[in-house]
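Quick check before the chapter quiz. The format below is the same one you will see on the exam, so make sure you can read both the input and the output lines.
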Amino acid sequence: MGSNVVDIKILDRNYRVMCPDGQETALRDAARQLDERMVDTRTSTKLTNMEQIAIMAALNLCHEWIQEKAVETKKIAALEDKIGLLQATIEKAIGNPKAAAAEIKAIETAAKPDSE
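Here is the expected output.
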């Protein structure tokens, strides 16, 4: 697999970046989004140092990514609980009611929200 040099612009500075074949559009989109975030960071913080702007933008992006990852983890856990419940229901339907009932009870107990 080859790679190409792609020219991008972030905060009025030009950069040449190596990019795998077929990923040029994705790289340009990422650069455009990063540029927008860095412009927003520069405007909202009044920072002028490029490195500080980049660090603040990166911290904000990482924070958002961590929050989204936590939401996705909760969604996956809920789906896994539902799959377990479906599996137990199927087992019950095909003739293993004792094992299915125990599995359903365990899943329901684990799926109850903790008191906060």
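If your answer matched, good. Helices lie at 24-45, 50-93, 97-111.
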